[in-house]
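Need Carbamoyltransferase's 3D structure for a figure. Predict it.
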Amino acid sequence: MNILGLSAYYHDSAAVLLVDGEIVAAAQEERFTRKKHDAAFPANAISYCLDEAGLSLDEIDYITFYDKPLVKFERLLETYLAFAPKGFRSFVMAIPVWLKEKLFLKVTLKRELGSLSGLEQTALPPLLFHEHHGSHAASAFFASPFKKAAVLCLDGVGEWATSSVWLGDGSTLIPQWEIRFPHSLGLLYSAFTYYTGFKVNSGEYKLMGLAPYGEPRYVDLIKNHLIDIKPDGTFRLDMRYFDYATGLTMTNRRFDALFGGPPRKPEAELTQREMDIAASIQVVTEDIVLKLATTIHKELEVDHLCLAGGVALNCVANGRLEREGPFEQIWIQPAAGDAGGALGAALATWHEYLNKPREANDLNDTMHGAYLGKSFSQDEIEDYLRGVEAPFHRYDDTELMPEIAAAMDRGAVVGWFNGRMEFGPRALGARSIIGDARSPTMQSVMNLKIKNRESFRPFAPAIKAAAVSQWFNTESTSPYMLKVATVREERRLPMSDEEKSLFGIDQLNVARSQVPAITHVDYSARLQTVHEETNPRFHGLLSAFEAVTDCPVLINTSFNVRGEPIVCSPEDAYRCFMRTEMDLLVLENALLIKAEQPEWHDDESWKETFQLD
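Structure prediction for Carbamoyltransferase:
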C-alpha cells in the first residue's frame, strides 16, 4: 500500500511517501527549486519520493492533502463578514487568488498530478483531504514512540483551529477541544515578529534568538492589553490591536501606541526596545504553553505529550516545558510546520482512513532521524566535480575523519554533505556547516563571513548523545535540535565585573563557557544529540574531534547562506562553498580545499530566487 501525502499553496510545500505505513521518503519543494519556503505545487518533491521508492504515480493507492481548502474559504468569508466593512481592501486582494487557485484546489491538484505523471485525470489515484490540525496531530503522534499520549498543536491557523488538543491511543486520534481563529498564539508571536522588523513565517526564530539580550519589561503590558490568559492556559486576544484578520499587516496604530512607536523597519538597527519586546513575548508564550500542558495533563491523565504546529519549533519553550512541565516525556515532530502536514496527512490515511494498526515501543520514533531526503552517490558527486574542474581528494572514513577533526581544531570551517537530506527546518549533520565550538570567534566568523546574517544569532551544538549530561543540564536526548538546555556550571567561564555589567547586544562577545561559540548570553544552547544508530558518520566525526580535543561538541548550522534554502545537491553545496569563506567542503568521501579551487565567477541569477528574511 503506497500513500502520498502533500502540502502546498500556503507555506512550505512538501511531499511524503509511505509504503505499508513506513516513511520511505520526505522532502520540501524549496530544496529543489531553491526558493525559500516555496509554496508551489511540490512537483520536484513528489518526483523525488517516487524515485526513491522506484514507483510511478499510477502505483500510488491514495494521495492525501493536508488541509481542507473549502473550510478555510468559509473561515475567510465569515471573518470578512464579521469585520465588514473593515478589511475590504484585503478582501479584494485575497478573493481573486482563491477563485483562481485555492477554491478549486481538487481540480488544480488533479491537473498538476496529471501533468507530472502523464496520466489521464480519471486514472489518478483517489485524492483525499485531511483537516489541517488533524494532519499536525497525526504527524506528531503516529510518528512518535508513544503508545498513548496527549497531543498539543499550536500554530497560526489551519481552517479554523489555532490550538487543538488530542488524545492519541494506539492507532486512533481523538479530538478533545480547540481554540479558534482569530485567537492564536502563533499569530500573536508573528505579530511581534512583524513589529520587531522580521519577516512573518520565517523570522520567528530570530525573535526567539533575540530574547535573551533583553529584559521582559512588557509582559504585564501584553497580558493587560493584548491577551486575556485564563488559569487553564486558554486565551483570547483583543483584536482591536491587530490587523491580521482583515488587513494587510499584522498590527495597527493602536498596537504602535501601546509600545511607543511604529514597527522597526527591516534591516534597521536593533535597539534595546526590540530586545525587551522579544524577551517579553517569549515569556508570555512559555507561560501559555506551560499552563496548557498542565491542563492537558490533568484532563487526559497520560504521561507523554506530543507537539506539532509552528509554535512547536520554539525550542526555548520546549526546553522549559520539559524542565517544568508535568509530563514524563515530550516528543516534538521535527517537521512541525506545514511541511510536516504532508506526513500527517499520509499517516492519518494509513491509520485512521484504512484502520491499519500501529506499533510503538516508547523508545524509538519512526522518523529515521529525519534523514528522509535525497542522497547522492560518490560517483554522482565526483562526476559533478570533474565536470566543473573542481580539485578534490578522495579518502576513506578512517583517513577522512581525523583529517577533518584536526582541521577544525586549527579553526577551519567545514561544509559537511553526508547521506540523505534532512526533512524539516533543521540541519542535523547531513547538510551542515560545522566548526569548533570551543573557538571564541567562531560565532562571529560564521554569522558574518559564512552565513551573511545578523551578528546576534546563536548557533547550535551537535554533541554525542552519551556525553550530553556531561556538558549540559539535561539527561534528555534532543536528536532534532528542538529543545534548549543550559551549559553546566563547571563548564562556564568566570566573568569580570565589567563583563557582568554589560547589557543588550554588548553581551555578544563575552565568552561564557568552554564552548563559547554555542553558548547564548543566558548560558542556553539549542541541542542536537547525535546518535550512532541514525547518523553513524556524523557521530564518527564527533568521536574523531573528541579524540583530538577531548571535546565531543561541534557547532552545527544549516548549510546555506541567508535567504537560501538548505543545500540539496553537490552543485548547491559547491556554489555555497565558493561564495563564502568556508575552508573545506566534504561531499561524502571527497574533500575539497578552498585554496586549491579555481577562481569562482558567480552567476548572479541565483539571487532572483532567494527571499531575504
